[in-house]
Amino acid sequence: MAVLSGSVLVYVLIFAVAFSFSSKIIQSKVEAIGENVVTAVANKVDIITEDVANITEITEFFLQQKIDYNLIPGLLKTILTVHSNIFGISMSFEPYSALPHQKYFSPYCLRMKDKVDCVMLGGDAYDYFEMGWYKHSKDTGKASWTEAYTDPQISGATYIISHSAPIYQKDGEKEVFRGIVSADISVEWLQQTISEAVKVYGGYAFVVSGEGNLLTFPQKEFKDNISIRSIAREKNDEKFISIADEIVAGRRGASRIIDPLSGKRAWIFYRPVGVNNWSAGVVFIQDELLADIISIEKMIIITSIFGLILLVTTTIVLSKRITKPLIMLSTAARRIARGEMDAAVPSLGRKDEVGTLAGSFNLMQTELKKYISKLTISVAKQERIENELKIAHDIQQGIVPTKFHAFGKSFNVTAFGTLQPALEVGGDLFDTFEIDEKRTLFVVGDVSDKGVHAALMMAVVSTILRSVTKHLKNPDDIMRILNREIIKRNNKSMFVTLFCAILNNDTGVFRFSNAGHPPPILVRKNCDPSLIIGNAGMPLGVKPDAEFSWQIIELSDDDKVVIYTDGVTEAANISEEFFGEERLLSSIKQNSSLPPRIIVQDVIVELKKYSANRPPSDDIAMLAFSFKAPSPDGKPGNKEIEILNRPEEIERMSLEIGKFATDFGASPEEVLEMQLAAEEIVINIINFAHEDALNHTIYLSLKTADRKISITIIDDGSPFDPTKAVSPDIEAPLEKRDIGGLGIFLGKKMTGDVAYERVGSFNRLTLSKFIKGDPK
User: Fold this and answer.
1) Angle, to 10 degrees, between the axis of helix 291-337 and the axis of helix 2-63?
2) How many Å apart are CA 656 and CA 639, to the nearest integer?
3) Sign of torsion, CA 65 67 73 74?
4) What does residue 647 show for φ and ψ, rounded to 5 degrees?
5) Taking every pair of C-alpha atoms in the chain, what is the biggest distance, in angstroms?
6) Tens digits of per-residue pLDDT, 600-657?
7) CA–CA gap between residue 636 and residue 665 (Å, rounded)
């Protein structure tokens, strides 16, 4: 259809352009013919009228001489014999001017078929002195032409046009009017004469007087002095009326009209004639004028239609010849695509492009079956490898801690870590565990490779670490043993950067050793985070006898430490710019007062935003912990609670809050108020904070100070400040209260002090309650 439509469109456009071009040529030729013909008609009328006028002038000249009036009929007869274009000629004299005893003297000779007859005009029945042709010339003293008319006395029913000229003779010094010389032209003869030039083109000619009356016209029955305007008005043709006005005005032009005689489409050409403001016109019937051309055009149209039918037929036949085998091949291809590898591909037995395509399909089918067979084996191997890698991933994630609890006999050390390999498995590691009730170990390392080899090395390091720390108290000793064992097992020239630290849970003494690892970040209470700059020794696995130094800092109450691998600071955005230490410090700063879990998770969120959620280019490991100085009087200092955003977690949360508040010395009523306040807030978070149905963690941090218990509730839901919520009208009847707001109101009412802030991607709401009883 596309080829056919395009071909037909081009074909029609070519035909239209050619037809338009030929029509313009035809029109120009018609205009040239019409202009030539109307000019010939006008010239013919000019010649005839000038010849008649000359005869009358010559005759007038002779009459001005003294001649024998009895010889006048013979003179007139001779003139008619010589001049065939004159129908009749007369010499009409004033009363008693020719013969003293005769009032009327007007010899008139006219052509009757093949002979010339002469008669004497005048008398009571024919008073020529009152005739228009006589009176007009006598009154004006000038020669003039009449309109077309009939005169029963001289021309019978024949329409004539007369040219009359006055005769003057000298009487002494004066010119005395003697009579009129009048020569007549037959309208029928004039019409035949001027139509000779038009007849070959199947048209007709006409002459219009200066008054607009038709002097000649092919319609024999036209009446005296009928005008061209009256014909136009009779046809009620506005265009022809306009043309009639132009003809009477003596203008020249050409136009298409409806012929007033035949009612057919026609061309009219007109121009002025140099006689008394006459105009000549010709009319061509279009079908007769262009008969041969129309015949040729019809032949062209018929040929074009035949050619178009042939084009359509040929296109359809050829396209079917091409598309039929293609449809067969397409059907076979769809069956193969559905998995029917043994589907028959048609063998077309053709040597053109379609036959080549069919052969290619057969070859493709054979090769595809071989490829699918190989691919099935390859996919099975790949699935096995992916499954093994998944198992390896799960094993690696099982090596690092996944559940974190408070360390120390006072439960004053809280930690959280995460490991995100760049591939299925990676070479980063972190670990934290209690060596004994006084000491907690923190380790973060980075193997110098990615993938399976790095993961195995990471597992080796983690295993050795767990086995040697029970007997060692200094991180530098641990480093030396790890370095020696890694070199024994390293056959891939890999090395390991490692940060190893031991925290005294009671005193806050933090002893650490660094083997080429990025410096950790210290977050002191009410201070900006800063790097712990120390001696960064040589990475593990490089030099067998390498020595590792150690350093000590002392942590204070609410201090935190964040340890990380270079996958954090070297995470890149789309411009290949690193995340860097400055952004890391800024991200930690905005969450510095929050639990370690929030600090780590928010950094991960910031990394994803910075890298536009692109897969990480390196493994990422982070470990953060907070230190809470133990209370010297044995009172509970703080407690961290983590629950999922599920209603069934509410009971466990409430029990832990009750135990914490009871241990602090709160009364049962105060304990119940704190439990209810926390429950109402958390239920609101569960019901409204998250738009998805995924699991989200809600964190509760319980702290004591003097006689006050503070519960800080942290969630990663949509930003919402409950302190700005309008409190419900609890005095109003239930049916008139607005829905919502009651839980927040209870939280405020039962605790007394509520504070909210949005920190990074988390909502942080703190409920503080003053304990009236005597805290323990």
Assistant:
1) 170
2) 9
3) negative
4) -60, -30
5) 182
6) 999 999 999 998 878 787 889 999 999 988 766 545 567 788 888 999 999 999 999 9
7) 10
Distance of alpha carbon 666 from the chain centroid? 71
CB contact set of 107 (below 8 Å; sequence gap of 6+): 72, 73, 76, 90, 91, 118, 119, 120, 121
Give 739's pLDDT tier (boundaries 50, 70, 90). Answer: very low
- CA dihedral (433, 435, 441, 443) in degrees, to 10, reads -70
Q: For the sheet with 762-770, list strands across it.
A: 638-644, 697-705, 708-715, 762-770, 753-759
Q: In what order do the strands lie in the sheet with 106-112?
A: 115-121, 106-112, 88-93, 174-186, 160-171, 144-145
User: Residue 183: is it exposed, middle or buried by C-beta count within 10 angstroms (0-12/13-18/19+)?
Assistant: buried
Element (H, E) at 756: strand 753-759
Q: What is the pLDDT of residue 586?
A: 92
- Tokens 């890391």 identify what position? 584
Instruction: Give me the amino acid identity at 149.
Output: Y
What pLDDT shows up at residue 225?
A: 57
* 0.85 surpassed by pTM: no
Q: How far apart are CA 587 and CA 566, in angstroms?
A: 16
Which tokens go with 180? 């009129």
Residues listed for the chain:
776
- Alpha carbon distances (Å) from 291 to 201, 284, 294, 295, 331: 10, 11, 5, 6, 58
pLDDT (tens digit per residue) in 236-248 = 888 888 998 998 8
Tokens of 413: 């050390």
Local structure of 303: helix, strand or coil: helix
Write the DSSP string, 514-580.
EESPPP-EEE-TTS--EE----B-PPBTS-TT-----EEEE--TTEEEEEE-HHHHT-B-TT--B-H
The string of pLDDT tens digits covering residues 291-323 is 666 677 677 778 878 888 888 888 888 877 777
